[in-house]
Write a structure and sequence with these properties.
globular, single chain, about 240 residues
């Protein structure tokens, strides 16, 4: 079987499973809601002080929207380990590498599309309440952040999908990633200085900042996140190829 029908089959799974569609919608709604709240919060906005970053304030909701993105990625892959679904999939597509590539494409493509929509909406709802405080934010920076937001959320969804393929459990994946993103990354960042700039979430989110003083620039940061994701996808692919369905 060629790649196109395999991809079509995997896309149908994503499109017809209500939990996955809801998960993609949650990425948009959660990110936009928290971005708007951050912009409306005068104290959270920093009052326009020296450390105030209007661009990141407008995209602050990505900190929470990424949880919905990794949940989508983990769920999309974990459904294959329920009720013998993976065995059926691999019976239909014996070439496991081709199936895995189609699965990840079916996860990454809609995550990217939703991520770009999320970026546009976050910039709109996050910028408006800032008023004059956003006067220094150029539209070039806004466009960079919108594109970066889409790529970052897609990479995080793929990261979760690849880790789920390796661990064979969406619950285990989320039990690792959610605490890491919400707590461990910040603790490590405070204790390790610039080394934390190489963590997948912190590196990728540089693109959402107007200014940065760490090791990485916006696109270099996304490249580091992409390297993390590639490594996890390779591990997940190895697991699918070598372990029993």
């Amino acid at each position: 079987m060629s790649f196109a029908p395999v991809l079509h089959s995997e896309w149908l799974k994503v499109r017809t499973l209500r939990s996955l569609v809801v998960g993609l919608g949650a990425v948009v709604l959660v990110t936009a809601a928290f971005s708007a709240l951050a912009a409306l919060d005068d104290d959270g906005g920093g009052g326009g002080g020296a450390d105030f970053d209007p661009l990141f304030t407008a995209f602050f909701g990505v900190n929470f929207g990424q949880i919905a993105a990794i949940t989508f990625g983990a769920q999309a892959m974990s459904t294959e380990f329920q009720g013998g679904a993976l065995r059926v999939s691999l019976t239909a597509v014996p070439r496991r590498g081709r199936w895995f590539a189609a699965k990840m494409t079916a996860v990454g493509a809609p995550a990217l599309a939703v991520g770009l929509l999320t970026g546009c909406l976050s910039l709109t709802v996050g910028r408006a309440p800032l008023g004059d405080r956003a006067s220094g934010m150029s539209w070039t920076e806004g466009l960079r952040a919108v594109v970066g937001c889409g790529i970052y959320l897609a990479l995080m969804a793929l990261f979760a999908a690849g880790l789920t393929a390796l661990l064979r459990s969406g619950v285990t994946t989320l039990s690792i990633l959610i605490p890491f993103l919400l707590l461990v990354s910040f603790v490590v960042g405070d204790m390790s200085g610039n080394v934390a700039d190489l963590l997948p979430d912190r590196a990728g989110q540089v693109v959402l900042h107007e200014t940065w003083d760490g090791l990485l620039g916006p696109w270099a940061g996304l490249a580091v996140t992409a390297l993390w994701t590639s490594a996890v996808l390779l591990a997940g692919s190895w697991s699918v190829r070598r372990r029993d369905a």
